[in-house]
């Protein structure tokens, strides 16, 4: 994914210069996913977690897309990349779910009464309510990001880019690297602002962890409830 060229033409020296005052690109992870627009003039490169790594423009993009419509191509490529990352995460989640749950060595073996179970469920409900409230306060409002150069701005919600606004006069004459850098800055900022990383793992809490541990180990749950655990078949006739 390190080749910046889309064809066999020679690159101009200025195409590899970094624009002063703009953030430097981050190093690409070992695995990346690419979203591309229908005209194949824009590529948005993301990590498997949908973090934006880079935006790449075809050197001939102005011959295909009017600068006034560039935002549409970038929006299409960005959301295609997000969908690819989501599909990958679902696939890997399915593979992880096929594994055998651990035996929870050293887990609490104390007896659970009906009152204990009800208290646990009530606490889980409260932890979920608090998580939902915190999450809604962040993701229910579209995030707004503007590039440090001031030529690109956009909005996103729940990880999806809703709108992009690109200064078409600037895009019509700016260097490719300048456009790519400002687009990357905005798309990366929108992803970070609309998908809070501290909540990406889902709701957490002592009661939630305990309930998940019990659900993952039915034998332990039955022992703590005072019920006989099912025996493994011996295979004898």
TrEMBL record:
Residues 114-141 form a coiled coil. Residues 1-27 are annotated as: Disordered. The keyword Coiled coil applies. This is YbaB/EbfC DNA-binding family protein. Keywords: Coiled coil.
């Amino acid at each position: 994914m390190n080749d910046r060229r889309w064809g066999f033409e020679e690159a101009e020296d200025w195409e590899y210069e970094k624009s002063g005052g703009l953030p430097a690109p981050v190093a690409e992870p070992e695995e990346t996913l690419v979203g591309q627009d229908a005209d194949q003039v824009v590529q948005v490169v993301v990590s498997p977690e949908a973090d934006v790594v880079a935006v790449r423009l075809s050197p001939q993009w102005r011959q295909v897309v009017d600068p006034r419509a560039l935002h549409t191509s970038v929006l299409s490529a960005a959301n295609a990349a997000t969908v690819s990352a989501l599909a990958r995460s679902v696939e890997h989640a399915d593979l992880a779910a096929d594994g055998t749950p651990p035996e929870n060595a050293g887990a609490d073996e104390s007896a659970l009464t009906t009152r204990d179970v009800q208290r646990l469920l009530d606490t889980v409900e409260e932890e979920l309510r608090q998580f939902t409230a915190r999450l809604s306060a962040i993701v229910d409002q579209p995030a707004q990001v503007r590039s440090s150069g001031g030529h690109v701005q956009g909005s996103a919600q729940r990880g999806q880019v809703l709108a992009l606004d690109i200064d078409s006069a600037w895009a019509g004459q700016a260097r490719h690297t300048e456009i790519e850098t400002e687009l990357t800055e905005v798309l990366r900022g929108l992803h970070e602002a609309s998908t809070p990383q501290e909540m990406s793992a889902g709701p957490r809490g002592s009661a939630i962890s305990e309930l998940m541990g019990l659900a993952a180990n039915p034998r332990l749950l039955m022992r703590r409830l005072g019920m006989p655990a099912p025996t493994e078949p011996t295979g004898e006739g």
